[in-house]
Specification:
Blueprint: H1 4-23, H2 27-49
Helix pairs in contact: 1-2
């Protein structure tokens, strides 16, 4: 069963991380934020498959 609350939470977290990514200057922190966004996107896909 799809948990829409979890998907909504992950979407908001993705939006927050994308905003942080725009203002970040450090290369390592940028890469970490990119990875976090990708991980959350994968979690959403997994949740939709359940």
């Amino acid at each position: 069963m799809i948990n829409y609350d979890k998907i909504k939470k992950l979407n908001s977290q993705i939006a927050i991380n994308k905003e942080k990514l725009q203002s970040e200057n450090d290369i390592k922190k940028k890469e970490k934020l990119r990875c976090l966004v990708q991980i959350d996107m994968l979690k959403i896909k997994i949740e939709r498959l359940n």
